[in-house]
Write the structure tokens for this entry.
Amino acid sequence: MSTSSAGEPPRGYHHGDLRATLLQAAGALLVESGAGAISLREAARRAGVSHSAPYRHFADRQSLLAALAAEGFAELGARAGQVADLADFGRLYVEFALEQPGRFGLMFSAELDKARHPDLAQASKRLHDLLEAGVSRVAPSRDPQVVATAAWSLVHGLAHLLLAQQLGALDESSRRTMIEAVTRLFGEGLRG
Amino acid sequence: MSTSSAGEPPRGYHHGDLRATLLQAAGALLVESGAGAISLREAARRAGVSHSAPYRHFADRQSLLAALAAEGFAELGARAGQVADLADFGRLYVEFALEQPGRFGLMFSAELDKARHPDLAQASKRLHDLLEAGVSRVAPSRDPQVVATAAWSLVHGLAHLLLAQQLGALDESSRRTMIEAVTRLFGEGLRG
DNA sequence: CCTCTATGTTGACACTGAAAACATTCTAGC
DNA sequence: GCTAGAATGTTTTCAGTGTCAACATAGAGG
């Protein structure tokens, strides 16, 4: 116990929980400097392990990123599960994206091949199912797939455009206003 | 003239039009294997030039990508300019994205810092202005900024979700149907 | 003609993903 | 307990990349 402080169990040759530690390190990199800054070597470095060790847990770099993305879907799904109203879901969705831009970008990155990462595909499908269920409740008379796609497209596009600074520099309050207005506009379309 | 064939002017030490050639090579790479596969060295290789030559025309890799993105905005803007109806714009937008996924992704990549690339910012603003003008025509009674943002979010999100294979594997026809249905739904919202 | 400047080239450095060969530890089955 | 064999880490190595500095060449303007 002499060389380890609180929270870090003593580690010998074997790390004990490298996979989780790598995910944590990569998550920190994601927040600090974006997905492009994530490297297996830096993650290994931060985990205090050789540069090659990550390959025992992730087949390649993309697999690490896919795992990070899956985490994101899980968290977003958990938050969405606590919400009944469709508009709340929209707000929550955009807020998640703005709060964790790197993670959000990763979750919908075209670089991540879902066929190669079943976990990711499953996590993302769960969110999709959740949305469709919500939509059926709100607009039962319409084709739920179409409405769900429209609803998702709307909030997803808004989040993406905001992140890409495509809508100009909006301050916190006008951003909120825009989010409200856009989702309300959609709600009107549903009822009309 | 003995060493050059048609279309390729004879080149000595100086290339003559390296910048354009590099953009073309990078564009090909973008189509072939995505933005991630674009490297300055490979572009140089394809242009038949030393690995360091690109730096005379692009400050760094990101600047090359930004130039490619700006090209994309220009082309999309040109196409959009020939269209009057807002719904046509939506279709055109999504089709462009599906036709040139790599380019589209680049155009809205969060990695590209618009502040560092005024050309890109300008090209993107032009498209935005075009859209707002179209919106004012269709729904003059509403706040054009809100409606434009909603319209853009909708088509942008749909394009992005389709590209990310987030909506499941749709064949050509059901994809068209979905695009039609989603844009129509939005049109109803505008009139309602 | 001759210099100045734009454009290319060479060579180096640090970093990365990835694979192969080797070392250590943990865990079953005896 | 002891001991194979499976997991997990390490070392070493390779090819590729972005970027920079020092140098070479060509073209344009005086």
User: Anything to note?
Assistant: Residues 1-8 of chain B have pLDDT under 50 and may be disordered. The radius of gyration of chain B is 20 Å. Residues 12-14, 39-42, 51-52, 55, 60-61 of chain B lie near DNA strand D (CB under 10 Å from a C1').
